[in-house]
Amino acid sequence: MTQALIIIDVQNDYFPEGKYPLNNTEQTLKYILKLQNYFRQKQLPIIYIQHVDQDVNAAFFVKNSYGSQLHSKLLSLEEHNEFIVQKAYPNSFYQTHLQQKLEQLGISQLVICGMMSHMCVDSTTRCAFELNYQPILIHDACTTRDLNFNDNIIASQIVHDSFMSALMRFETVKKCESFIQKI
Prior knowledge:
Strand order of the largest sheet: 3-2-1-4-5-8
Number of domains: 1
Order of helices and strands: EHEEHEHEEEHEH
CATH topology: Rossmann fold
Helix content: 25-40%
Radius of gyration: 15 Å
CATH superfamily: Isochorismatase-like
Number of strands: 8
CATH architecture: 3-Layer(aba) Sandwich
Shape: globular
Structural class: alpha/beta
């Protein structure tokens, strides 16, 4: 089984100085970097998903802005086994060349991490399952933010845990360390 790591929307606007900061981004990034390092050592493909909004009046991820750039700690894309796929919707497969790239690389399983748990991570992971990529979701390498529903603030950890527990029905959900140690 050939795996690829999918890193979703780890972009500057989601960090404390960005336009749409999430909670626990620095801790989440540490786990993502561990996964990145593992995949680099194994010489397995890494695909960075980058959300770009074409609307110059968008709240965040505006095309060609600092906020839409991938976080600098993720980069050096000098590796020929690392790719960027840009998207405009939460689902990383929708209207992108992600599936074609995975087919070209002969990928049969996806290891998924990134930002935001309740939006892009959720929709991409569900689609990966529907496309038979047998996804493994690394829950501590994902994060989100507080949400407001019915005039109630739902804490980001509750939002995150709720989505991870719902995804367990479709995917394998693991901690970063248990994934790296198991393989």
